[in-house]
Design goal:
Strand 6 and strand 7 form a beta hairpin. About 45% of the residues lie in helices and about 15% in strands. It is α/β, with parallel strands linked by helices and about 290 residues long. The relative contact order is 0.09. The chain is built from eleven helices and eight strands. It has two domains: about 180 residues, 3-Layer(aba) Sandwich (Rossmann fold), CATH 3.40.50; about 80 residues, N-(1-d-carboxylethyl)-l-norvaline Dehydrogenase, domain 2 (Orthogonal Bundle). The structure holds acetoacetyl-coenzyme A (CAA). Acetoacetyl-coenzyme A binds next to helix 2 and helix 9. Acetoacetyl-coenzyme A (CAA) binds next to helix 2 and helix 9.
Protein backbone atom coordinates (compact mmCIF):
# COMPACT_ATOMS: atom_id res chain seq x y z
CA UNK A 1 0.00 0.00 0.00
CA UNK A 2 1.32 3.45 -0.87
CA UNK A 3 1.69 5.53 2.28
CA UNK A 4 -0.29 8.77 2.43
CA UNK A 5 1.72 11.97 2.76
CA UNK A 6 0.96 12.27 6.46
CA UNK A 7 2.42 8.81 7.10
CA UNK A 8 5.70 9.84 5.56
CA UNK A 9 8.18 10.96 8.15
CA UNK A 10 11.35 12.92 7.70
CA UNK A 11 14.47 10.74 7.64
CA UNK A 12 16.98 12.86 5.86
CA UNK A 13 17.33 16.64 6.09
CA UNK A 14 18.97 19.06 3.70
CA UNK A 15 20.25 22.48 4.76
CA UNK A 16 21.28 25.06 2.18
CA UNK A 17 23.48 27.91 3.40
CA UNK A 18 26.37 27.35 5.75
CA UNK A 19 26.31 30.67 7.59
CA UNK A 20 25.42 31.07 11.25
CA UNK A 21 21.79 30.02 10.85
CA UNK A 22 22.38 27.14 8.41
CA UNK A 23 25.18 25.71 10.56
CA UNK A 24 23.09 26.02 13.72
CA UNK A 25 20.06 24.36 12.11
CA UNK A 26 22.20 21.51 10.74
CA UNK A 27 23.68 20.96 14.21
CA UNK A 28 20.22 20.82 15.79
CA UNK A 29 19.05 18.24 13.21
CA UNK A 30 22.12 16.02 13.66
CA UNK A 31 21.72 16.17 17.45
CA UNK A 32 18.10 15.04 17.04
CA UNK A 33 19.31 11.93 15.18
CA UNK A 34 18.71 12.94 11.56
CA UNK A 35 21.03 12.38 8.65
CA UNK A 36 21.84 15.87 7.38
CA UNK A 37 23.33 17.08 4.11
CA UNK A 38 24.51 20.68 4.34
CA UNK A 39 25.21 22.46 1.06
CA UNK A 40 26.64 25.82 0.06
CA UNK A 41 27.97 27.14 -3.25
CA UNK A 42 30.83 28.66 -1.26
CA UNK A 43 32.96 25.54 -0.74
CA UNK A 44 35.41 27.25 1.62
CA UNK A 45 32.50 28.48 3.77
CA UNK A 46 31.00 24.98 3.71
CA UNK A 47 34.26 23.46 4.92
CA UNK A 48 34.50 25.97 7.77
CA UNK A 49 30.88 25.39 8.73
CA UNK A 50 31.38 21.59 8.75
CA UNK A 51 34.38 21.95 11.08
CA UNK A 52 32.44 24.30 13.37
CA UNK A 53 29.44 21.96 13.60
CA UNK A 54 31.71 18.98 14.36
CA UNK A 55 33.47 21.02 17.09
CA UNK A 56 30.10 22.01 18.62
CA UNK A 57 28.91 18.40 18.52
CA UNK A 58 32.13 17.24 20.20
CA UNK A 59 31.56 19.84 22.91
CA UNK A 60 28.00 18.60 23.35
CA UNK A 61 29.11 14.94 23.60
CA UNK A 62 31.75 15.88 26.15
CA UNK A 63 29.33 17.94 28.23
CA UNK A 64 26.67 15.21 28.21
CA UNK A 65 29.17 12.40 28.78
CA UNK A 66 28.18 10.71 25.52
CA UNK A 67 31.48 10.24 23.69
CA UNK A 68 30.06 7.21 21.84
CA UNK A 69 27.48 9.46 20.11
CA UNK A 70 30.19 11.31 18.21
CA UNK A 71 30.67 8.54 15.62
CA UNK A 72 26.95 8.56 14.91
CA UNK A 73 26.94 12.34 14.58
CA UNK A 74 29.96 12.32 12.27
CA UNK A 75 28.37 9.65 10.05
CA UNK A 76 25.15 11.61 9.91
CA UNK A 77 26.64 14.95 8.83
CA UNK A 78 27.53 15.29 5.17
CA UNK A 79 28.96 18.38 3.52
CA UNK A 80 27.47 18.26 0.01
CA UNK A 81 29.36 20.31 -2.55
CA UNK A 82 26.62 19.86 -5.19
CA UNK A 83 22.93 20.67 -4.99
CA UNK A 84 22.21 17.17 -6.30
CA UNK A 85 23.62 15.79 -3.03
CA UNK A 86 20.23 16.80 -1.58
CA UNK A 87 18.26 14.45 -3.84
CA UNK A 88 17.29 11.97 -1.10
CA UNK A 89 16.28 14.52 1.51
CA UNK A 90 12.69 14.70 2.78
CA UNK A 91 12.90 18.32 3.86
CA UNK A 92 15.31 21.04 2.76
CA UNK A 93 15.68 24.11 4.97
CA UNK A 94 17.26 27.07 3.27
CA UNK A 95 19.15 29.74 5.18
CA UNK A 96 20.68 31.68 2.30
CA UNK A 97 20.82 35.42 1.64
CA UNK A 98 17.64 37.21 2.61
CA UNK A 99 16.74 38.18 -0.98
CA UNK A 100 13.51 37.07 -2.61
CA UNK A 101 14.98 36.31 -6.02
CA UNK A 102 17.83 34.24 -4.51
CA UNK A 103 15.42 32.09 -2.50
CA UNK A 104 13.03 31.72 -5.43
CA UNK A 105 15.70 30.54 -7.83
CA UNK A 106 17.12 28.14 -5.21
CA UNK A 107 13.70 26.56 -4.63
CA UNK A 108 13.09 26.26 -8.40
CA UNK A 109 16.43 24.47 -8.76
CA UNK A 110 15.65 22.26 -5.75
CA UNK A 111 12.29 21.19 -7.19
CA UNK A 112 14.26 19.52 -10.00
CA UNK A 113 16.51 17.71 -7.53
CA UNK A 114 14.34 16.47 -4.66
CA UNK A 115 11.44 14.00 -4.66
CA UNK A 116 7.99 15.32 -5.48
CA UNK A 117 6.70 15.18 -1.92
CA UNK A 118 9.82 16.67 -0.30
CA UNK A 119 9.20 19.81 1.72
CA UNK A 120 11.00 23.05 0.89
CA UNK A 121 11.32 25.21 4.01
CA UNK A 122 12.63 28.74 4.19
CA UNK A 123 14.28 30.16 7.28
CA UNK A 124 13.37 33.64 6.11
CA UNK A 125 12.91 36.13 8.93
CA UNK A 126 11.00 38.68 6.92
CA UNK A 127 10.14 37.67 3.35
CA UNK A 128 6.72 36.39 2.37
CA UNK A 129 6.55 32.60 2.11
CA UNK A 130 3.70 33.01 -0.40
CA UNK A 131 5.95 35.11 -2.63
CA UNK A 132 8.86 32.67 -2.36
CA UNK A 133 6.46 29.82 -3.25
CA UNK A 134 4.99 31.73 -6.20
CA UNK A 135 8.04 30.79 -8.28
CA UNK A 136 7.59 27.06 -7.54
CA UNK A 137 5.62 24.39 -9.35
CA UNK A 138 4.69 22.74 -6.02
CA UNK A 139 3.83 25.71 -3.74
CA UNK A 140 1.80 23.37 -1.51
CA UNK A 141 5.12 21.92 -0.32
CA UNK A 142 6.71 25.30 0.52
CA UNK A 143 6.66 26.49 4.12
CA UNK A 144 8.50 28.85 6.47
CA UNK A 145 10.51 27.47 9.40
CA UNK A 146 11.92 30.46 11.24
CA UNK A 147 14.62 29.46 13.75
CA UNK A 148 16.26 31.93 16.14
CA UNK A 149 19.93 32.63 16.63
CA UNK A 150 21.72 30.69 18.11
CA UNK A 151 19.58 27.86 16.74
CA UNK A 152 21.09 25.17 19.04
CA UNK A 153 20.04 27.23 22.07
CA UNK A 154 16.76 28.96 21.21
CA UNK A 155 13.73 26.67 21.65
CA UNK A 156 11.22 28.43 19.36
CA UNK A 157 10.53 27.85 15.66
CA UNK A 158 7.84 29.82 13.83
CA UNK A 159 6.08 27.65 11.23
CA UNK A 160 4.66 29.86 8.49
CA UNK A 161 1.86 28.73 6.21
CA UNK A 162 1.93 30.44 2.84
CA UNK A 163 -1.31 30.93 0.87
CA UNK A 164 -0.83 27.64 -0.97
CA UNK A 165 0.98 25.58 1.68
CA UNK A 166 -1.23 22.56 2.34
CA UNK A 167 -2.19 21.28 5.79
CA UNK A 168 -0.31 18.03 5.24
CA UNK A 169 2.95 19.97 4.82
CA UNK A 170 2.24 22.01 7.97
CA UNK A 171 1.47 18.86 9.98
CA UNK A 172 4.65 17.12 8.81
CA UNK A 173 6.74 20.18 9.62
CA UNK A 174 5.20 20.62 13.08
CA UNK A 175 5.98 16.96 13.89
CA UNK A 176 9.52 17.38 12.56
CA UNK A 177 10.15 20.53 14.64
CA UNK A 178 8.87 18.75 17.76
CA UNK A 179 11.32 15.92 17.07
CA UNK A 180 14.08 18.52 17.09
CA UNK A 181 13.00 19.24 20.69
CA UNK A 182 11.86 22.69 19.65
CA UNK A 183 8.53 24.40 20.20
CA UNK A 184 6.74 25.10 16.90
CA UNK A 185 4.14 27.85 16.70
CA UNK A 186 1.92 28.19 13.65
CA UNK A 187 1.95 31.69 12.24
CA UNK A 188 0.22 33.45 9.35
CA UNK A 189 2.35 34.74 6.50
CA UNK A 190 2.44 38.37 7.63
CA UNK A 191 5.34 40.80 7.79
CA UNK A 192 7.63 39.90 10.72
CA UNK A 193 5.51 36.85 11.64
CA UNK A 194 5.08 37.02 15.45
CA UNK A 195 8.51 37.57 16.98
CA UNK A 196 10.04 40.16 14.67
CA UNK A 197 6.73 41.98 14.49
CA UNK A 198 6.91 42.47 18.27
CA UNK A 199 10.63 42.91 18.94
CA UNK A 200 11.64 45.12 16.01
CA UNK A 201 9.76 48.24 17.20
CA UNK A 202 11.50 47.80 20.57
CA UNK A 203 14.95 47.57 18.96
CA UNK A 204 14.14 50.59 16.80
CA UNK A 205 12.98 52.58 19.84
CA UNK A 206 16.22 51.71 21.68
CA UNK A 207 18.14 53.25 18.75
CA UNK A 208 15.95 56.38 18.83
CA UNK A 209 16.57 56.57 22.59
CA UNK A 210 20.33 56.45 22.05
CA UNK A 211 20.16 58.93 19.17
CA UNK A 212 18.18 61.38 21.34
CA UNK A 213 20.88 61.21 24.02
CA UNK A 214 18.44 60.00 26.67
CA UNK A 215 20.90 57.45 28.11
CA UNK A 216 24.19 55.74 27.23
CA UNK A 217 24.25 52.54 25.14
CA UNK A 218 25.23 50.53 28.22
CA UNK A 219 22.46 52.00 30.36
CA UNK A 220 19.79 51.44 27.71
CA UNK A 221 20.81 47.78 27.50
CA UNK A 222 21.07 47.37 31.28
CA UNK A 223 17.65 48.97 31.69
CA UNK A 224 15.97 46.31 29.58
CA UNK A 225 18.08 43.41 30.90
CA UNK A 226 17.42 44.29 34.52
CA UNK A 227 13.79 45.30 34.21
CA UNK A 228 12.59 42.62 31.78
CA UNK A 229 15.10 39.81 32.45
CA UNK A 230 16.11 39.77 28.78
CA UNK A 231 19.46 37.98 28.28
CA UNK A 232 20.72 40.81 26.08
CA UNK A 233 19.87 44.49 25.88
CA UNK A 234 18.24 45.76 22.65
CA UNK A 235 21.38 47.42 21.24
CA UNK A 236 23.57 44.35 21.88
CA UNK A 237 20.82 42.17 20.41
CA UNK A 238 20.66 44.37 17.31
CA UNK A 239 24.43 43.90 16.86
CA UNK A 240 23.96 40.16 17.31
CA UNK A 241 21.17 39.93 14.72
CA UNK A 242 23.10 42.11 12.24
CA UNK A 243 22.27 45.77 11.57
CA UNK A 244 21.95 45.21 7.81
CA UNK A 245 19.46 42.39 8.38
CA UNK A 246 17.44 44.61 10.71
CA UNK A 247 17.49 47.57 8.33
CA UNK A 248 16.42 45.41 5.39
CA UNK A 249 13.54 44.00 7.39
CA UNK A 250 12.44 47.38 8.79
CA UNK A 251 12.50 49.04 5.35
CA UNK A 252 10.32 46.38 3.77
CA UNK A 253 8.00 46.11 6.82
CA UNK A 254 7.60 49.91 6.98
CA UNK A 255 6.81 50.02 3.28
CA UNK A 256 4.27 47.23 3.68
CA UNK A 257 2.54 48.38 6.87
CA UNK A 258 3.23 52.12 7.07
CA UNK A 259 3.76 51.72 10.83
CA UNK A 260 5.94 54.52 12.22
CA UNK A 261 7.35 52.11 14.82
CA UNK A 262 9.05 50.24 11.96
CA UNK A 263 10.53 53.30 10.24
CA UNK A 264 14.29 52.77 10.63
CA UNK A 265 16.17 55.32 12.75
CA UNK A 266 18.70 57.62 11.05
CA UNK A 267 21.34 56.13 13.31
CA UNK A 268 20.71 52.61 11.97
CA UNK A 269 20.83 53.78 8.36
CA UNK A 270 24.06 55.70 9.00
CA UNK A 271 25.77 52.74 10.69
CA UNK A 272 24.84 50.35 7.90
CA UNK A 273 26.01 52.85 5.26
CA UNK A 274 29.36 53.05 7.08
CA UNK A 275 29.66 49.24 7.08
CA UNK A 276 29.17 48.86 10.84
CA UNK A 277 26.90 45.84 10.83
CA UNK A 278 27.37 44.54 14.38
CA UNK A 279 29.15 41.42 15.63
CA UNK A 280 29.92 40.10 12.13
CA UNK A 281 31.99 43.16 11.15
CA UNK A 282 33.50 43.72 14.62
CA UNK A 283 31.68 47.02 15.16
CA UNK A 284 28.09 48.05 15.70
CA UNK A 285 26.73 49.74 18.80
CA UNK A 286 29.68 48.00 20.54
CA UNK A 287 33.12 46.86 19.43
CA UNK A 288 33.92 43.13 19.14
CA UNK A 289 37.35 41.57 19.12
CA UNK A 290 37.91 38.02 17.86
N1 LIG B 1 25.92 28.13 18.92
C1 LIG B 1 25.72 27.09 19.77
N2 LIG B 1 25.66 27.23 21.10
C2 LIG B 1 25.83 28.48 21.61
C3 LIG B 1 26.04 29.60 20.80
C4 LIG B 1 26.09 29.39 19.40
N3 LIG B 1 26.29 30.40 18.55
N4 LIG B 1 26.18 30.70 21.59
C5 LIG B 1 26.03 30.28 22.85
N5 LIG B 1 25.81 28.95 22.86
C6 LIG B 1 25.62 28.10 24.02
C7 LIG B 1 26.91 27.95 24.79
O1 LIG B 1 27.68 26.89 24.28
C8 LIG B 1 26.39 27.66 26.17
O2 LIG B 1 26.00 26.30 26.24
P1 LIG B 1 26.23 25.45 27.58
O3 LIG B 1 25.41 26.15 28.63
O4 LIG B 1 25.73 24.09 27.20
O5 LIG B 1 27.71 25.53 27.83
C9 LIG B 1 25.11 28.51 26.27
O6 LIG B 1 24.70 28.76 24.91
C10 LIG B 1 25.32 29.83 26.97
O7 LIG B 1 26.35 30.52 26.30
P2 LIG B 1 27.41 31.46 27.00
O8 LIG B 1 27.61 31.02 28.43
O9 LIG B 1 28.59 31.57 26.12
O10 LIG B 1 26.76 32.91 26.95
P3 LIG B 1 25.45 33.48 27.55
O11 LIG B 1 24.96 32.78 28.76
O12 LIG B 1 25.70 34.93 27.59
O13 LIG B 1 24.36 33.19 26.39
C11 LIG B 1 23.20 33.65 24.40
C12 LIG B 1 24.57 33.59 25.08
C13 LIG B 1 22.57 32.26 24.37
C14 LIG B 1 23.43 34.14 22.98
C15 LIG B 1 22.29 34.63 25.23
O14 LIG B 1 22.91 35.87 25.37
C16 LIG B 1 20.95 34.87 24.60
O15 LIG B 1 20.03 34.06 24.72
N6 LIG B 1 20.82 36.02 23.90
C17 LIG B 1 19.57 36.38 23.22
C18 LIG B 1 19.60 35.80 21.84
C19 LIG B 1 18.35 36.15 21.11
O16 LIG B 1 17.50 36.92 21.53
N7 LIG B 1 18.22 35.54 19.93
C20 LIG B 1 17.11 35.84 19.02
C21 LIG B 1 17.60 36.82 18.02
S1 LIG B 1 16.31 37.26 16.93
C22 LIG B 1 16.46 36.15 15.69
O17 LIG B 1 17.30 35.31 15.62
C23 LIG B 1 15.40 36.20 14.65
C24 LIG B 1 15.57 37.07 13.53
O18 LIG B 1 14.85 36.88 12.60
C25 LIG B 1 16.46 38.20 13.49
Amino acid sequence: MTPTHTEQTVKQVGVVGSGIMGSGIAQVCVQAGYRVVIHDIDTAGLKQSYAKIIANLEKWCHKHDQAEQMDVFTNNLIAGAALTDLQDTDIVIEAVTERLEVKQSLFCALENVVRENAILASNTSGLSVTEIASACTRPQRVVGTHFFNPAPVMPLVEVIQGEKTDDDTINRVVTFIERLNKKPIKVKDVSGFVVNRIITPMLNEAMHTLEAGIASREDIDEAIKLSMRHPMGPLALSDYIGLDTLLYFMESAYQETGKESLKPSHLLKKMVAEGHLGVKTGKGFYEYYK
